[in-house]
Amino acid sequence: MNFTPEVVIKSPGRINLIGEHLDYNGGHVLPAAIDLTVTLRLRKKNSRSCTIYSKSIDDSFQVDLDKLEISSQEWHNYFLGVIHFTEQRYPGHISGFDCIVESNLPIGSGVSSSAALECGIAVALKNLFDIPVTDEEIIYIARDAEHHFVGTKCGIMDQFAVVRGKKEKLIQLNCHDLSFDYVPAELSPYAIVLLNTNVSHNLATSEYNLRRQECEAALEIVRKRYPVYEALAHIPKKIVQEHEKEMTPKMFQRAEYVIEENQRTLQASLALAKQNLPDFGALLFASHTGLSEKYEVSCPELDFLVKQAHHHPNVIGARMMGGGFGGCTINLVHKDHMDSFIEHTALAYQKKFQIELTPHTVKIGDGVQLIL
Ligand code: ADP
Ligand code: MG
Question: Whose CA is nearest to atom 17 of ligand 1?
Answer without folding.
Answer: 75
